[in-house]
Specification:
Aspartate Aminotransferase, domain 1; alpha+beta; five-stranded mixed beta sheet; about 50% strand; Immunoglobulin-like; five-stranded antiparallel beta sheet
Length: about 250
């Protein structure tokens, strides 16, 4: 991914390795600046930073929209006329860092005081999460509608199957996060339950939450390999609990 910006007399060029990044990875790249002017320019406060921002504030060019998480500055503190400087950078994206969604995203903010220009950096969920969502689709026909950043991880909104045994489940929001090396899966169901306590029978909607904490051996068989059997057993246990308590 590349970006170029001119702010006379400086020309900025940024380039990253890759176009998008998963949670738990790192954003690597280089930032170059060239002085096209005739005078020496200070680079004392210049560099690149990883910042988080609401997308609508970026589009509106709102002041202070970019919230810096980390920065890297040029070792060279000034740039003579016609001179060029280069800065390598690497920013870690934490395992629970917010993913890019409709509302907000990470950006690479660069230039003097890290606010001359920015480049949106798309952060995607960990591959582990998308593979588990794939299991829910393949074996239980829960369809992914969307995902978004949550306070502690990534929330996937899933549409339940139309099968009779799950007719009571109206929706499922499944939130993934990491607690050190343990996988946290928080299921938030909206379920329908028959109310027979009143004179007229009616259907109520209730929230039902279940949280599972899985050790590495329970969700992984090694690099890029999920423990499908154990994960399916965990998912099926959760679904059975909801159906048993709420089926009508």
């Amino acid at each position: 991914m590349k970006g170029t910006f001119f702010n006379k007399p400086l020309e900025w060029n940024i380039e990253t390795v890759g176009e998008s990044w998963q949670q738990g990875s790192s954003i690597n790249g280089t930032l170059k600046v060239k002085n096209h002017g005739t005078e020496t320019i200070s680079l004392a406060d210049a560099g690149v930073g990883l910042a988080y921002a609401e997308i609508k504030k970026i589009h509106a060019r709102a002041e202070g929209a970019l919230k810096l998480d980390a920065t890297t500055t040029f070792e060279q503190k000034e740039l003579k006329a016609g001179e060029e400087a280069e800065l390598s950078f690497s920013f870690n994206v934490g395992p629970n860092s917010p993913v890019t969604d409709k509302k907000a995203s990470y950006y690479l903010a660069y230039g003097r005081q890290f606010n001359e220009n920015h480049l949106q950096s798309k952060i995607e969920p960990k591959a582990l999460y998308t593979k588990i969502v794939g299991l829910l689709d393949t074996f239980h026909r829960f369809k992914q509608k969307e995902f978004k950043a949550s306070k502690k991880g990534v929330e996937f909104k899933l549409l339940p199957p139309t099968s009779r045994d799950m007719a009571n489940i109206e929706s499922l929001n499944l939130t993934f996060s990491m607690d050190e090396d343990k996988l946290v899966m928080k299921y938030d169901f909206q379920v329908k339950k028959l109310d027979t306590s009143s004179v007229t029978t009616k259907i109520n909607k209730e929230s039902h939450s279940i949280e599972k904490l899985l050790a590495p051996k329970e969700y992984s068989l090694g690099k890029d390999m999920i423990n499908q059997d154990t994960l399916l057993k965990s998912v099926e246990a959760v679904l059975s609990e909801v159906k048993l308590k709420n089926v009508y």
